[in-house]
Design a protein that fits this description.
This protein has 382 residues and is an alpha+beta fold. 23% of the residues lie in helices and 22% in strands.
Length: 382
């Protein structure tokens, strides 16, 4: 059990935190962008960002296409890219910042040879394991026209009830095996058996666990398709390309079955829907994984932070792009390694960190707190 997996102890099961305020999903746009717009501090220009405008090795603005017309928005002090871990490396490369040979292959001038731009692409993969319930106590009772209308009406009128939650109320972080010092598997639990496409499992009442390894060793890349900013980049995640990823996912399946095989679940568990009781061997699990593993939509790492002397680093500890002036990155691109959990809060923290550096604020003092580590981690899985 852990009361705060973002606090001292991540390992354990507990309530899941979410960015919800007054019954609404509270996005970064709601929390930051709209208040800044209302205060007159931000002006939005909608268009396609084509490249960062460079004068020598200094970033001086951004070239955008607005309703088919190209224009340059000049920077007052600096240019800050927060275009995602897929589009930020694309923009850097279109601006002449990236692997020199790759840029030259597309006829682009090289402003700064940074081979780490677009490399180191990472993500979280997950599967969802579904179970049929032996009692009618799940959200399936609302999986009908009348039930959905009732939930929707309550939310519209009061911003309360089932519509005020994404229903992922519980989560867990565990270690996959002895010798792993801190959690490498994440769970979140849903009190209904439903597919991502919104189709409920045929057996009616049920529940499911979304589970996956958090520290995959597979690495992908983002590269240019062409020098045309309108072309999407070439995205290669190379999922499951490291053999340990298969081993880790098999551990996820076996440990999840062990969780739901506990005595406490016996009054509620009817049967396993997915993968199903017939999936037992490594080969059978691997076949299931090939068909069902899905992205958790946590891409990161394509402009990773590091020392200026590290050829694969793209930004320094102040989020400044190495080798040029007046340019920073403030999104999940800068993560050296995918975080031990979801990316929403860490991405917001990168924005906060970059803002402090831009404003010249003194960083908070280093903390002396140490995370809790299971004292038996070398010898035991739990």
């Amino acid at each position: 059990m852990t009361t705060d997996y973002n606090g001292q102890q991540q390992e354990g099961f507990g309530p899941m935190e979410a960015t919800i305020w007054k019954g609404r999903r509270w996005s970064a746009a709601n929390a930051y962008l709209r208040p800044a717009m209302a205060g007159g501090n931000v002006q939005i220009v909608q268009g396609l960002a084509r490249r960062v405008v460079m004068e020598g090795t200094s970033a001086v603005g951004v070239e955008v296409a607005v309703r088919g017309q190209e224009q340059v928005i000049r920077a007052g002090r600096e240019v800050v890219l927060a275009a995602s871990s897929l589009n930020t490396p694309k923009l850097l490369m279109l601006s002449g910042i990236g692997p020199a040979q790759h840029l030259q292959d597309h006829g682009l001038p090289v402003v700064a040879d940074r081979p780490g731009v677009g490399a180191n692409l990472q993500d979280h993969l997950e599967i969802y394991m579904q179970f049929a319930a032996s009692q009618p106590i799940t959200l399936y009772k609302y999986w009908n026209l009348w039930g959905k209308a009732r939930v929707g009406a309550q939310w519209l009128l009061t911003r309360t009830g089932l519509g005020a939650s994404n229903q992922f109320e519980a989560c867990g972080f565990i270690r996959s095996k002895p010798g792993v010092d801190y959690p490498d598997i994440q769970y979140h639990f849903l009190p209904i058996a439903v597919r991502y496409d919104g189709k409920a499992a045929a057996e009616g009442h049920g529940f499911q666990a979304h589970v996956g390894p958090m520290r995959s060793k597979s690495r992908g890349s983002v590269t240019l398709r062409s020098a045309d900013p309108a072309d999407p980049p070439v995205i290669r995640f190379n999922y499951m390309s490291h053999p340990e990823d298969w081993e880790d996912f098999r551990a996820c399946i076996r440990l999840t079955r062990e969780v739901f095989g506990q005595e406490a679940f016996k009054p509620y568990l009817k049967s396993e829907i997915q993968p199903g009781a017939g999936v037992e061997s490594d080969a059978e699990m691997d076949d299931f994984l090939r068909e069902h593993v899905e992205s958790a939509y946590h891409p990161c790492g394509t402009a990773r932070m590091g020392r200026a002397s590290d050829p694969m680093a793209v930004v320094d500890p102040d989020c400044r792009v190495i080798g040029v002036e007046g340019l920073r990155v403030a999104d999940s691109s800068v993560f050296p390694q995918v975080t031990n959990g979801n990316l929403n809060a860490p991405s917001i923290m990168v924005g906060e960190k970059a803002a402090d550096h831009i404003l010249g604020r003194t960083p908070l003092p280093a903390s002396n707190l140490e995370p809790w580590v299971n004292p038996n981690w070398r010898m035991a899985q739990r």
